[in-house]
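ok trying again, last paste got cut off:
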Amino acid sequence: MTVRKAFLILHGKQALNDDVRRAVEAHRASGCEIAVRLTWEAGDAQRLVQEALAAGYPHIIAGGGDGTLRDIAEAMAQADTDASLVLMPLGTANDFAHAASVPLDCAGALALLDEPASRIDLGEVGGQLFLNMATGGFGSQVTANTSDDLKKVLGGAAYLFTGLSRFAELRPAYGRLTGPGFEWEGQLLALGIGNGRQAGGGHVLCPEALADDGLLDVSILPAPTEVFGTLRDLLAGGLGVDNLFVRTRLPWVEIHSAEGLDINLDGEPLAGDSLRFSARPKALSVHLPRHSPLLSRGVLKP
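nice, full thing came through this time. structure:
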């Protein structure tokens, strides 16, 4: 019998997580060989991916928040490997995992090793790859300003709390977006570009996004005066203003802003006045639930 082998890259803050330990021990007892390595500083995720691939591990498990998952997914895609990725979501928001219906318990996440891997797309901007979504405007400001201590206390609700408490500081951003057959220009409150459906701790920006269609979903919340005046209500309602969004699906989109635009890339800050986002189709093999909403075959037909 062939022994399954997997390499777990675990965020250092999760070193004492008993749920992780129990799940790993249970899988080892079932005959799966799992090596565990911890990240400590910037660059560790990339180095450990290379270690796993050099040792011939066919599966890499990413244990951490959205930023850790992004770092490992990027390193694997850049290595152009046939190895597959398993997501073990251990962060505060776990936005991609929520949208993909990945189990949030460690045992359930590891059980996805038994599911066939699917090739999914990644987003790319300025040489950086991202798994879930790039956000701009209000969403990125709130994410950037939410403290780690507050996230520990409130979990995902910390993003909403920060948005409400810093309401007076939030300002709309100006931008011009262009892509194949698409152009939009104006003030915006929120912007989402990616393969996932939500960001910032549960704000659904791209509700129809698919991770395997070779396209990026683009979602813009314009900021006319009457909309900006009700931002507090929109925050309290979880951005439940679907009819106000401008949405499209494109292989690439360029953003131009003379004032510059702050972007949050799966937890990583990015700034610039001219940015080009593009989809990298089928860039990575990932074990997702069989009927994940982010997979084309997971979409239930009426």
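cool. The chain has ten helices and 15 strands. The mean pLDDT is 83.
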